[in-house]
Amino acid sequence: MIEATGLRKSFRVGRGRGATTVDAVRGVDFAVRRGEIVGFLGPNGAGKSTTLRMLATLIRPSGGAATIAGVDLLRSPAQVRRRIGFVAQASGTYDDSTARRDLVLQARMHGLSKSVAQELAVGAIRAFQLDEFADRKIKTYSGGQRRRLDVALGVIHSPRVMFLDEPTAGLDPPSRVRMWQEVRRLREEGMTIFLTTHYLDEADSLCDRISIIDAGRIVAEGTPSDLKREISGDVVAIDFAATDVADGAAGDLPAATKLLAEAPYVHAAEPVDGTLRLYVDSAATAIPQIMRALYDRGIEPGAIEARRPSLDDVFLAKTGRSLAE
Amino acid sequence: MKLVRDTWLIFQQEVGLMVRNPVMVAFSLAQPITYLILFAPFLKVVMVDRGASSYADAYRIYVPGLFVAMGLFGGLFAGYGLLSALRAGIIDRCRVTPVSRTGLLLGRALMHVCLNVVQAVVVTLVALPFGLRVHLANLLVSYALLSVMVLLSTSISYDIALLVRNENSLGVLVNTVGQPVSLLAGVLIPLVLAPMWIQRVAVWNPFAWATDGMRALFAGQITQTVVWQGALIMSGLAAASLFWSSHLFNRDVS
Ligand SMILES: Nc1ncnc2c1ncn2[C@@H]1O[C@H](COP(=O)(O)OP(=O)(O)OP(=O)(O)O)[C@@H](O)[C@H]1O
Ligand SMILES: [Mg+2]
């Protein structure tokens, strides 16, 4: 449904001699099959929105090619617009309008007649549970209500391909779960969904496949479980910032990192804000060895935890940084 | 055809939003009515040996000037609305749909035309008790001329907004351009009272032609050449400026 090869975008910023270029997206390749939910996972500034805006015909790629629902993005952007829906990262609604008015306008902008547009608006209000506030000014909506409206606007014409830029940014956990259900429902209605997120749990539980993007490049790609399987073994996380530890524990982090990174039973040691993540074959056999090594040095760890690798561990392994807040 | 439909669609939406904000519309009338009541009487005094012997004469000279001032400034600030719609992502949301992109711009511009004509009607009605008398046909032609003028000033504002892309620069530019253009069009005090060099400069000011045309209409001289000259100059410039703003708008933003 979506196929992109070598898609690039660089922005020129400034004028005259002071002008520089920002390489926002440096050549990404990916493919999304019919009926899939595929996510771009990446930190701020990774190039997620820029990629989506290129695919949604809002900005022209500096290079590369893409086809969406069988249509060439560069050659026939107008045809692409008939086949897609797009929900931007920042909502694009009139403050003084109402959900119903904007829904009708949106359907009519897709070329539908007034009566059809009104029917679709009624359906969307029901499907996205907007009834309670559909005729109130949009500026009075809560963040979650507004986001539901944004998605309702994007899908009002039942597009074949849906682009969602951070559909759950700024929502509380229950609203996020509800939004995930909406997205799954859209897929069941036959849409192919391409979304961006910087939430690990969202990528993990909502997406069939994910591409991890960092600094404009895709650094890993696959199903969440395949990606996690790439990190074989277990993760042992030692917390040096725990509050019940004697003063100075946080200062032990560099020493512990250095010590354990050299231990034969540790594949990799990565400090991530106050905790030390150790990648080992088996937590059960490694933990006693780790404890002994630390005690021998007089280092007293706070909490110690063993777990299966998460997407964040994948992210850390691929980029050297963590996505978790 | 699609352009007409989409322009109408956006126009309806914009007018709908404007109507939902009647306080704003009322406020936008405060300034013209203040000038109408507190400034026009000065003209009677200043123009006394130029054929303005009564209040009726003063209003016949001042109201067309006020129309030009409204048409000029009413449109010049339209760029703010466009910038806020761009910033709010409304334009992006529309541009992802197959809606005509020129229609997005034209529908908005026509909303300003509509608003200004409504204001002009209110101004006309307020001026009637002060003695303003004008032929209905001439009045309607003057509204048409005003509409073209608003299209021109609105699209100039869009041009500037799309080039500078920030409200502060837009405000500064609009004021530095708008003030001299309106004074050199004789909207407050007719150019016949101006020194020779100002009159020579004003020949190059398209809005001065429009003002002359507008005044001729109110004087009942619809057949004067300056009427169609003013209309032609305004229409030509409006078409050129609209063409350019739709070019700026349609090209790759951001
Ligand atoms: N119009 C623009 N002009 C210049 N630089 C831009 C422009 N748009 C984006 N960028 C830059 O491109 C890079 C990628 O931005 P993008 O918005 O795609 O990131 P993102 O992955 O969506 O981040 P976030 O999670 O914060 O939304 C950033 O460095 C950004 O500053
Ligand atoms: Mg983004």
Automatic annotation (TrEMBL), chain A:
Database matches in SMART domains: AAA
Pfam families found in the cross-reference section: ABC_tran, DrrA1-3_C
GO MF, one annotated term: ATP hydrolysis activity
Keywords: Antibiotic resistance, ATP-binding, Nucleotide-binding, Transport
A GO BP annotation: doxorubicin transport
Listed InterPro entries: AAA+_ATPase (IPR003593), ABC_transporter-like_ATP-bd (IPR003439), ABC_transporter-like_CS (IPR017871), ABC_transporter_ATP-binding (IPR050763), DrrA (IPR005894), DrrA1/2-like_C (IPR025302), P-loop_NTPase (IPR027417)
Keyword Endoplasmic reticulum belongs to the record: no
PROSITE patterns on file: ABC_TRANSPORTER_1, ABC_TRANSPORTER_2
Record's keyword annotation contains Metal-binding: no
One Gene Ontology term, aspect cellular component: plasma membrane
Domain ABC transporter, residue spans: 2-240
Membrane topology: Peripheral membrane protein
Subcellular location: Cell membrane
Domain of life: Bacteria
Protein name (database record): ABC-2 type transport system ATP-binding protein
Native organism: Micromonospora tulbaghiae
TrEMBL record, chain B:
Gene Ontology terms, MF aspect: ABC-type transporter activity
All residue ranges annotated as the ABC transmembrane type-2 domain in the record: 23-252
Keywords from the UniProt entry: Antibiotic resistance, Cell membrane, Membrane, Transmembrane, Transmembrane helix, Transport
Membrane topology listed for this record: Multi-pass membrane protein
TM spans (from-to): 21-41, 61-83, 104-128, 140-164, 176-198, 218-244
Record localization: Cell membrane; Membrane
Predominant subcellular localization, coarse grouping: membrane
Pfam families: ABC2_membrane
InterPro entries in the record: ABC2_TM, ABC2_TM_bact-type, ABC_2_transport, Nod_factor_ABC_transporter
GO BP, sorted A to Z: response to antibiotic
Gene Ontology cellular component terms for the protein in this record: ATP-binding cassette (ABC) transporter complex
Similarity field: Belongs to the ABC-2 integral membrane protein family.
Protein name: Transport permease protein
